User: Which sequence fits this backbone?
């Protein structure tokens, strides 16, 4: 594992854990204000929504890193090894194309919204919408590693 790969893993973990921690704290504060003080803090919902998106995108990359995404293996388990390998390769290719499309289109969308700000907190929408291409790039990186790891393991096994 390279230093860059470890750093990316640290970023994915930190973003996921920190987002979850802040969401829990904000929800507890909001519940206290709403039910004890009979008032609410309007901006908390806006922040929680953005943090939820950050947590999901970073967490998805982290799940890909640890091979924790759901795999539909019923079909591939019933196929001959060569065909199953081809089906998995096609599925990986489709995933990479989807993620590349997500990265490009969400980056364009974020750039188009660069002059806008969120309603309550006045956070630039470029930052909020930028979570999508960032998360997509992290996931793309993790899924690109799959064939590289498999290829390097295959070469070691043959040697």
Assistant:
């Amino acid at each position: 594992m390279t230093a860059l790969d470890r750093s990316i893993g640290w970023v994915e973990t930190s973003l996921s854990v920190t987002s979850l921690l802040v969401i829990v704290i904000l929800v507890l504060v909001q519940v206290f204000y709403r039910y004890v003080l009979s008032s609410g803090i309007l901006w908390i919902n806006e922040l929680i929504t953005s943090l939820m998106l950050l947590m999901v995108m970073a967490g998805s990359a982290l799940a890909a890193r640890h091979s924790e995404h759901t795999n539909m293996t019923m079909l591939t388990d019933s196929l001959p090894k060569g065909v199953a390998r081809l089906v998995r390769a096609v599925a990986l290719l489709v995933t990479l194309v989807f993620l590349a499309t997500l990265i490009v289109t969400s980056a364009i969308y974020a750039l188009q919204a660069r002059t806008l700000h969120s309603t309550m907190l006045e956070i630039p929408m470029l930052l909020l919408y930028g979570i999508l291409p960032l998360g997509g790039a992290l996931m793309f990186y993790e899924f690109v590693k799959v064939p590289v790891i498999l290829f390097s393991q295959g070469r070691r096994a043959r040697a």
Summary: The longest helix spans residues 3-35. Residues 3-158 form one domain.
